[in-house]
Specification:
four-stranded antiparallel beta sheet, 8 strands, binds iron/sulfur cluster, alpha+beta, globular, two-stranded antiparallel sheet
Length: about 280
């Protein structure tokens, strides 16, 4: 096995032991080849020594995501973010000790939602990095869909000077264009793609406004587009392969019967631990 391949396998073992669910490698040339991302956001622009971006993913268990907006979902999100940053930090230090200069970009990296309302971009995007690292394909929702978890996975990226082989791309398109993400988005921040295809028309400010409101109520983030996406093997694990109808009818049924048994446990988690406002009345 070549030296770079030995290092690649060591990185995979290291991050697996430390709790990563997904690992992929993207050579920095991918950003220039595809030219999908504005140049100022390319890893080689942010750190000219970078040769490879190592993308790490951790899963968000579906039954908790389904309770959104809730304090339990907020805690999961914060825990996942903390763990991801720690994982990237440990890998960065480990690579530096091996003589491979490395830095990491944290999982979100914005100071507050108010900042996002004015400028809804982070300094680096993990979604294109994860796509170039072969971890998934883009859904209509603009989220990265992965075979194992659909969009219910969060990412962090480590930039390294090590020249490592690019992971193979996902073999097939994962989004089935069901539009559940569009139909269920509470503020209608996602709209059907223009004729001819492409991703949903995405109103980032409307999405950030929803996040701002949920932050005030201590039950951020929104994540409904992630909850309702039918893609992901995690649905088999959690016996939730046939939940789309339940998601699509949630608003209508809860408007008529706020204590409907099908949604009672989700509403329970929404009612306690955060400022509860009946979601159905707000849509
Ligand atoms: S996070 Fe919520 S508001 Fe934003 S696009 Fe997804 S469903 Fe819509
Ligand atoms: S909910 Fe449906 S349309 Fe939206 S990203 Fe998932 S598979 Fe694609």
């Amino acid at each position: 096995m070549s030296q770079p391949e030995v290092l690649r396998q060591e990185i995979i073992s290291f991050v697996r032991e430390q709790g990563a669910d997904l690992t992929g490698f993207a050579r920095v040339e991918k950003w220039a080849e595809t030219a999908e991302v504005p140049q100022e956001f390319w890893p080689q622009e942010l750190w000219p020594l970078a040769q490879t971006v190592i993308v790490l993913g951790m899963a968000m268990p579906l039954p908790i995501v389904e309770t959104t907006p809730s304090a339990i979902h907020m805690e999961l999100y914060n825990t996942c973010n903390r763990e991801l940053d720690s994982l990237a930090y440990r890998l960065t230090l480990w690579l530096n000790r091996q003589g491979q200069a490395s830095i990491f970009f944290p999982r979100d990296c914005y100071g507050s939602i108010k900042i996002l309302l004015e400028k809804p971009f982070a300094a680096f995007g993990h979604v294109p990095a994860a796509k170039y690292a072969g971890l998934g394909t883009l859904g209509l929702s603009h989220l990265l869909l992965t075979p194992a978890f659909g969009p219910r996975v969060r990412f962090v990226s480590v930039f390294t000077t090590a020249v490592l082989e690019n992971s193979p791309p996902q073999a097939k398109e994962l989004c089935i264009k069901c539009q559940a993400c569009i139909k269920c988005c509470p503020p209608s921040a996602l709209k059907a793609p223009p004729p001819g295809g492409g991703l949903a028309v995405y109103d980032k400010i409307a999405c950030a406004q929803r996040a701002y409101e949920l932050t005030r109520r201590r039950c951020y983030p929104c994540g409904v587009c992630s909850k309702v996406c039918p893609i992901g093997d995690d649905r088999k694990l959690f016996q939730a392969t046939k939940n789309t109808k339940k998601y699509l009818q949630e608003k209508e049924i809860l408007t008529k019967e706020s204590d409907h048994p099908d949604y009672r446990s989700w509403e329970h988690f929404r009612r306690y631990g955060s400022w509860y406002e009946k979601e159905v009345g707000k849509r």
